[in-house]
Amino acid sequence: MDGRAEVAVLDERGLWAAAGNDLGLVRDRVERFLKDSPRHLAEMAKAIDAAGRRVLEREARALRGAAERLGGRRMADAVRRLEGVARSGSLQEAGVAYAVVAKEIRELQQALAELLRGPAPGPTRPGAS
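User: That's the sequence. What structure does it adopt?
Assistant: Structure tokens below.
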């Protein structure tokens, strides 16, 4: 069984906890990720095409940090693998790892967009003790 299948796309509880149940902070982080992640993906694709390992690693690191702050553990794991390939793997491996990251980003973007469309929580997010 694939270990990724056991991990949710979005750890919503972790996201709210990391933001101190602050709706404004969650909204800001989510909106920033939704705005910035396509640019990071594009920069990574260019870096793979140009064999720019440093740029690839830098962009991957930025995306991993954003994913971790947002509770996107599956995406963070995929980006961590891409970082490792950027340091020591082949460009073919980087292309394969990039495809997984791109898929995980789309899924996380969708989950985060749904979160923003959902009902606003009260002062304390239900279930986020």
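The CA atoms of residues 64 and 79 lie 6 Å apart.
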